[in-house]
Every structure is written in C-alpha cells, then in structure tokens.
Design brief:
single chain, about 130 residues, mainly alpha, elongated
C-alpha cells in the first residue's frame, strides 16, 4: 500500500471534517444572530455545562468500577489527568449530539426547538 496515498486520504478526511466544523460554526452563529434579532433569550433552551458534566461523570462511573481507596473513577480521572478528562468530555459531548453556540450548550432537541421558535418569531414579524 502506498503510504503517500494513505496520508493524502487521511488529510482529505481531516479537511472534510474541518470544513464541516466551520460550516456548523457559521450556522450556529447565524442561529444566535437570528435569536438576537427577534429578541429571544437562548438561555431557556441551553443546557447548563455543570449538568452535562454530571451526566458525563455518571457515564464514566457506570463504565468503570470505583477504585478501592481512591474513589469514583470520574473524580480520579479529573484530578489525576485533567487534560485526558477534558478531551474525553469534549468527545463525549460531540457524540451525545450537543452543539456549542456562543458558549452555551444545546442538545439536538433543544436546538430544534430553538430554531422552530426563531422561525415562528420571524413569521410573526413578517
């Protein structure tokens, strides 16, 4: 197998992923801009990061047994390797379908509700 082709394919995948991420950021910014234009408060649709982190910790603690004498796995991981914990948290957020918009986290259903509410508000303005 040609190593150069494999590296190029890997680069193409990475580029496609980057373009998709940029596109999502652009769309998310537009959603917030529309919400602001119609005078909506997005806070009621957002999920508090502490609640999300609590769910992540629960998932970790369900997957991994408590470490005797050291406590829950989630706390141990967060305290002993904060970078690993945070990377896992960010990956988990992505896999759970959360989207970050202007520093607020929205799950897929809340984001759908927000977009529907924005569309309704725009129609009312027309």
């Amino acid at each position: 197998m040609n190593t150069e082709n494999t590296e190029q394919n890997t680069q193409r995948i990475t580029t496609k992923q980057a373009i998709g991420h940029i596109r999502n950021l652009y769309i998310n910014d537009k959603i917030c801009a529309l919400a602001e234009i119609v005078g909506m408060d997005t806070d009621e649709y957002a999920t508090d990061e502490d609640d999300i982190e609590k769910r992540y910790n629960e998932m970790l603690d369900e997957c991994y047994e408590e470490v005797p004498g050291l406590g829950l796995y989630s706390k141990l991981l967060k305290d002993s390797s904060p970078t690993t914990y945070r990377c896992g948290f960010v990956d988990w957020i992505d896999s759970e379908g959360y989207a970050e918009i202007n520093g607020e986290n929205f799950d897929e259903s809340a984001l759908d509700d927000l977009m529907e509410a924005i569309a309704d508000a725009v129609q009312e303005l027309a």
